[in-house]
Amino acid sequence: MGKGKRIVYFISSILVFILFVVFSYIVSTDTLNQFDFDITVKIQDFIPQKFDTALSFLSLLGNIETYAFLIFLIAIFRRQLSGLVTLISFGAAHVVELFGKAFLHHLGPPYLFFRYDLNLFFPSTYVKPGFSYPSGHSLRVAFITVILTFFILKSKKLSSLPKNILLITLFSFTFFMLLSRVSLGEHWITDVIGGTLLGVSASLFAISLDKSFK
């Protein structure tokens, strides 16, 4: 990938991060609280509880243990030291996430909205860093979606049909993962938007600096 394209990815990363910061400020003012509540009620009314188990499996897959392992594998298979940039970007995004959850006063949905339907939890589930903004699940799925989309589009071994099938599958998984955050009552929609912006910014930053992305 040429220097010009890397600059475009870098600038895009900065712009998305600025958007994340601005959106975070708006969230901190509590002006979107009613919007959060209304969207949660509408989504939970629209999605029958019979789908809660399937969506709960997505919630389980979205834990940091799963994605950290996946990002580690990507870095290893790239077989370049610069692949560590992706790991560092992934980790840095989580530092920002933890900072937001520690200092941005934004309580999560009350228990009456909670619809997680499995008795299985990863260790990270028991770590409660504070408030609910931004969503870590949304951060992770956005990060890996951008990275995998880049790989799929750049692949010279895949024809158009397999690429389209993979992209549709990937985007569908991402959509339902993000939807599950709200439908299961684990996050407000603003948490999901904030996490998604943070994940996209971090992934674009990784692509701009990681020389293993060609």
UniProtKB/TrEMBL annotation:
The keyword Transmembrane helix applies. Keywords: Membrane, Transmembrane, Transmembrane helix. SMART domains: acidPPc. The chain crosses the membrane at residues 7-27, 54-77, 84-104, 137-153, 165-182, 188-209. InterPro entries: PAP2/HPO, PAP2/HPO_sf. Residues 82-207 form the Phosphatidic acid phosphatase type 2/haloperoxidase domain. It holds the Pfam family PAP2. PANTHER family: AT30094P, SPHINGOSINE-1-PHOSPHATE PHOSPHOHYDROLASE. This is Phosphatidic acid phosphatase type 2/haloperoxidase domain-containing protein. It comes from Candidatus Roizmanbacteria bacterium RIFCSPHIGHO2_12_FULL_33_9. The lineage of its organism: Bacteria, Candidatus Roizmaniibacteriota.
